[in-house]
Structure formats: structure tokens, C-alpha cells
Amino acid sequence: MENRELAILLSGRGSNFVAIYEAIRRGDLDAKICCVISNVADAAGLTRANEFGLTALSIPSRGIERTEYDRMLVTALRSFDPALVCLAGFMRILSPEFLKEYPGRVLNIHPALLPSFPGLHAQKQALEYGVKISGCTVHLADEGVDTGPILLQRAVEVLEGDTEETLSARILEQEHQIYWRAIALMLAKVNSRVNGRPAR
Questions:
Q1: Residue-range domains of the chain with CATH
Q2: pLDDT value of position 200
Q3: Cα(103)–Cα(144) distance, rounded to whole angstroms?
Q4: Active site residue 121
Q5: Whole-structure pTM value
Q6: Distance separating alpha carbons of residues 2 and 144, to the nearest angstrom
Q7: pLDDT above 80 (res 194)
């Protein structure tokens, strides 16, 4: 039996979460969102999840040590048994303990062509450096900051006069196009391992 359940972790508006949800609704992505969890109680992404009729959980992280918080996350996720954990603007670095629970099954999206410009304010970094091409990357999360294996990338031209806001907006459009495609690739790999057949 194939597991095509996705757990979404977010901290804010969740626009990548909405793009994943819409890809599923269109039939472009064969998956199901089993839960949406936020470490911010009033995150707009949780409101959207409730509007979509999805299971939405708030597990606030303020004042909680990182490993302890991740144990709380793992406990919450175990009942859903997700095939993949998809970070959609989840503004926390996951602990080794969390990553060991879902080895090779935690995806993240970053608004730069990694390994260039990891961490916060990637678009600002790109503009300050003067690159002519930026973009976005879907990668597997590891113990570093945006250092895990790359799954998919999409390039975005940096235009004359671009600001952090205008470049961010164009990169975000491409994020919405590649994240669900990377999820489809990973679901095929995860389920091929479980079923003992080679991934195509």
C-alpha cells in the first residue's frame, strides 16, 4: 500500500502550502495532506488549512528548547504517519533527532539557487552580490542550513532595477511551480523503497 500522505510545517502565510494543495486539487499531484502544523499560533497558513477542511495544529515553539520542541513535533506527527514532511516557510532549524525520525523524507524550499545564498534574506543577498540569475531550490533537509541534497531548481533572471520585493515575488511564482513536482519525485522514491521496486 503506497503512502502518499504529506505533513506540512509552516510559520507564516503558507503560500507554498496553498500551491501544493492546489496541485493536489487539480490532479497534478497524487498526494494527500494529512496535517498542517505551525509553530506560530496565529499563522495565516493555519487559517487557510482550516478553510480547506484540513487538520490544522498549532504547536507554539516560543520559549521551548529546540530538541524538546522537535520531540513534541515528532509525537504529533507519528499519529499521521506521513510519507514526507514538507517545510513551507517553517522558520526553524530542525534538530538531528527530528531528522532521524524521517531520514531522507523532509523537504524544504529556498529562494535561491543553492548552494549560493543560504539562510535568511536570500534575495537581498543575491541583489547585494550583483548576480544576474537567481531562482529557487527544493532540497532535502539535513542538519545544516540549506545544505541538503538538491532535488529541483528553477532559475529566475534578476532584472535591472529589481528590489528585494520584486525579485522575491517572481521567485515565489517559480517556487509554486517546482515544489509539488519535487514532492511527486520523492513520493515515487519513498514508495519504491517501501515496495521493493526500483524508482523510475
A1: 5-195 (3.40.50.170)
A2: 45
A3: 14
A4: no
A5: 0.94
A6: 30
A7: no
